[in-house]
UniProtKB/TrEMBL annotation:
Gene3D superfamilies: Transferase(Phosphotransferase) domain 1. Residues 317-412 are annotated as: Disordered. Residues 385-402 form the WH2 domain. InterPro entries: Kinase-like_dom_sf (IPR011009), WH2_dom (IPR003124). Residues 347-379 have a biased composition (Pro residues). GO terms for molecular function: actin binding. This is WH2 domain-containing protein.
Amino acid sequence: MAVNQKMQQERQDKLNAVRDSAYMNCQYYLRSNPQYDNVQQLKELGSRIDKHWFRVTDKKTKSERILSIMPLNPKMVLAFTRATCKTMKDLFSILQHPYIFPMCDFDFSLEQKLIVTVQPISIRGSLKDLIYQSRFTDMFYEKYNKRCRGLGLGQVQHFGKEILEAMLFMSEKGFPSHISLHSGNIMFENGTCRLAGYENTLLGNTSRVYPLIKKKIKEDKDAVDTLCFGHLLFEMSAGYELDSAHPGPQHLASQQSPQIVQILNFIFGVDSGKYPSIREIANHGFFSMVRLERLSMFNPTPIHLNQAMKSLLKSYKKGKAKKPESNKKKSRSRSGSTGSNKMYKTAPPPPQNVPPPPPPPPPGLSGGVPPPPPPPVQSPPSDSGRLALLSDIQRGAGLKKTITNDRSAPKV
């Protein structure tokens, strides 16, 4: 028992250290972005262990926001630059739709290699919180570890149609596949579902569903949104997440409505052998008869993508953006070793007509002194300055002058 308690304590200490580091990173970022204050660190609201959430106050609007911080994903194909950040921020700001959750602010911390997002607070939380009847401020793995009854047939149809309309709108504006579609990225506000998490696509982030379905979409990359939506629809109706790429007979047996079974079979291509598009799903009889009042009253302003936005979306779709420097070095290393293997399938032949090397001098006759020992290796620069700064940030203290002790000179 003592061993288990010790292991749990060590695990908790590691989690606390990660949270403390995230809090200091947030404070460090806000030092140069004073628009937000009154920082309150929240629990782990999502499944990503490297993403952290904070409740902050926007000084300009005098309203509370949710600020999230996550590290740069090495798989991000877009260049991690200030220009990319500005273009993405402008792109998100023009997404005005009743079923799309707004993005208040978006930023890159180039020095810390962090991505920062700021969005409104949805008191009711996400669609996942509605399904599991939980509060959005509770910890992810504590509130979603049980099965629930699921939503009613009318709710599944209505909420599903709202999500489909949001996805169709983004597709019409040239956005790529969502990839990160799941119930936690659907915010529930005033009885309406609003699509969020669309920034993850351009940042190279995927959802927990993606490892389950990636083998199914090898030959049809456009089907990723279809399968993600199928998983979302199953969770809404069944009250728990689907743990396989396609629902099996045991999953469909728990469905209370034959209409749900029919639309799931259609989405997962059981009868046709192929996946339908999002447009085809929206036109299916299960959703086509649903009337959305907010959509009928919506009078969208024309959206015009400037050249920078078009170039960014084109670069993402073609994957032609520059890779991180570390990947370049690995690529060069692999190409160099491959090249040498191509030159010599076996050991290279010995050189010919080369005189043998002179014999070494006999011992004791070389009257020279031995070479001096190499100078000591210079130690890397200390991180004490930054740690001191972060410590001051955590205590709320002002910056102090630091005194350095240079020990780089070799001792004689």
